[in-house]
């Protein structure tokens, strides 16, 4: 086994076809087979007999597996590929997301979850009909379906980047969609949750192999961090209040919290999981354990990005054209430093695919759930449980095909990480806004919610579309220097080796281009949510919102603030206090 040089290991462009061995294909195939087997197992267990068992696992799941499923569902191949590339190019500031995760989990667990749980709903958008009317429920369902299909297209396409150098691009895309649809259709939510648990472990294993191998090459984690510090990659705290700068403490905390609340607070793919828990206590436990999982994935991805910089700090493969896009950097690194280890490249490909499988299966299952609960049951009330279960299975197949078709658009969206979060901001922000209006403002009414939804969506689309076609200049995004000065040592030279600059002269831009279209992509959700709520409040107050009567079960109140205390008191209090068990102890 050859010794890899400390600065850059490449002497020529690395191709997967030159590094993949039979054992790599075996490792990759084993991941697919195990995932499919889990689906077949739960099909054998009979989850298709009742649509509640199929869609929400009969509300019998415990917290720990759901926690890992929540983490895996949106920490997908976008994270495996996009976050290390983000850290490599822009530094470890992305790690500040860890704080926004805390705020998101606390707000979701203490504000949104208790309301959903006491209403015993299956689709999150049932709340919109209970709080407003059926038309807003259908609108929310439609927006969720559009959002999910677009996002799923991105995550189906993303692992193909890892395989693009040795496999046919669209062959890998189709394989992802087919395998996801297969086990999700057969096994329902139970299969999705337990495959997520398996796939989460593979994702972490993929990160760890890169981190550990880099530390061996560089002589320890201290040298990796030293390289990162000298390259400016450890500059984390930037308190610049400007909303136009791509990443600052404020964009990551405020914008990140709003973006992730749009995912965990109101997105069916996540809500469906914690509503499948057997008690409200287990649902909250799942969310808080999920926070630990999010931290583990984030820290692993950030450390992988710093490892990548340590290896390529003097010979950037992106500048040299050895990779075509930033999201191909991580696969390139794996093949570069781990290509001599049989099975390890296959493990990384399996890890990348695992992230995609977990996300896509969750999305397909959620799309099937909202279709059955929001579009089928209200209009076909005579269907039996078994019929609804079979319809759910059919919807899984249908949406698997639809999401697969949308994967072609992902190649036009630029960086995977920013594209994914931008979509959630543009579409998820208005949805989060009307839920917040209904839960936090007793006077919010249907007219206000609809007006706010349209306003927030228009604002989100305006700034999001504008920023896509009029990219922010370098002095807004602040890319860090990347060098090719050391490539000549490894016969990888350019005509004039150079170091890229983080800023530079930019062409003249109009005021709207240099300001409105340069707003950080993380603020898309914040802007859309705030416009939705503000317009919703104004219209509700001007259309008689104060005169309406609202069921208190639909509003956030002191019961939510006291729920944890009351549960613990009933669980561990005096014998007299235990005479009347809480709803958590008797969820049925």
Can you describe what's shown?
This protein has 588 residues and is mainly α. It has a domain at 16-240 and 269-425: Sodium/glucose cotransporter. The chain contains 23 helices and no strands. The longest helix is centred in the first third of the chain and has 50 residues, at 169-218. The protein starts with 15 loop residues before the first helix and ends in a 16-residue tail after the last helix.
Element layout with pairings:
Layout: H1 16-19, H2 22-44, H3 51-56, H4 63-74, H5 77-90, H6 97-119, H7 126-131, H8 134-163, H9 169-218, H10 221-230, H11 249-264, H12 268-274, H13 280-312, H14 317-320, H15 329-338, H16 344-376, H17 385-410, H18 416-440, H19 446-469, H20 474-477, H21 511-514, H22 523-542, H23 558-572
DSSP strand content: under 5%
Mean pLDDT: 78
> What is the helical fraction, as a range of percent?
55-70%
Specify the CATH architecture of the domain at 16-240 and 269-425.
Answer: Up-down Bundle
Count of DSSP H/I helices: 23
Quick rundown:
The protein is an all-alpha fold and 588 residues long.
Give keywords.
588 residues; mainly alpha; 23 helices; disordered N terminus; disordered C terminus
